[in-house]
Design goal:
alpha+beta, 3 helices, globular, 5-stranded mixed β-barrel, two-stranded antiparallel ribbon, 30% strand, 18% helix, Inorganic Pyrophosphatase
């Protein structure tokens, strides 16, 4: 008996080997690098696909939601064009935060995420958007369709985390959030990042 078509003989690269999702841009796959219980900045090594320690956090700030990226996305020219304060994208996969009622304590997992909005981030002059989503079929947040329906305190925690997570005492903060946007604009950012990915890596994967 042969292997099923969906079987991976080798572990796929989280960025290039996984699908964006089955119902994009409304519901996407999110590869989780960090949880709200992590005080070290973990990040997928783009060459090998394995997790590595990017940096210990200098402050006590830690992510208030699951944090990772959407596979087969890339923040390049098209994403940069959607942000008036950015000249280009940051040349990384598109970041995503996923809110869940249940505590999920481990990273290196894939979750199905329902997109509800985003934060228009700018890092050192480059677009660094943070898509905001809820865990698909979540018992508390699963019926939410737009970021305006989330508790304000959750959105404020996300904004505060990203405004401080790269802060170095004595140095100017180079990360800013230009605005918070809803699901329709988040869809446009996701589609642009998918186009940027195809433009850089091709769509044959």
């Amino acid at each position: 008996m042969g292997f099923p078509n969906t079987f991976y003989r080798w572990r796929p690269h989280p960025w290039h080997g996984l699908k964006v999702g089955e119902n994009t841009p409304e519901v996407v796959n999110a590869y989780i690098e960090m949880t709200p219980f992590d005080f070290v900045k973990y990040e997928v090594d783009k060459k090998t696909g394995y997790m590595h320690v990017d940096r210990p956090q200098r402050s006590s700030s830690h992510p208030p939601a699951l944090y990772g990226f959407i596979p087969r996305t890339y923040c390049g020219e098209e994403v940069g064009n959607l942000n008036k304060k950015a000249g280009d994208g940051d040349r990384d996969p598109l970041d995503i935060c996923v809110i869940s009622e249940r505590q999920i304590t481990r990273g290196e997992i894939i979750v199905r995420a329902k997109v509800v909005g985003g934060l228009a981030g700018v890092d050192n002059g480059e677009a660094d958007d943070k898509i905001i989503a809820v865990l698909n079929n979540d018992n508390i947040y699963g019926n939410i369709n737009d970021i305006s329906e989330l508790p304000e305190v959750l959105v404020e925690r996300l904004r505060h985390y990203f405004l401080t997570y790269k802060l170095i005492p004595g140095e100017e903060n180079k990360f800013s959030i230009e605005k918070t946007y809803g699901r329709e604009e988040a869809f446009r950012v996701i589609k642009a990042s998918m186009n940027d990915y195809d433009n850089v890596f091709g769509n044959e994967l």
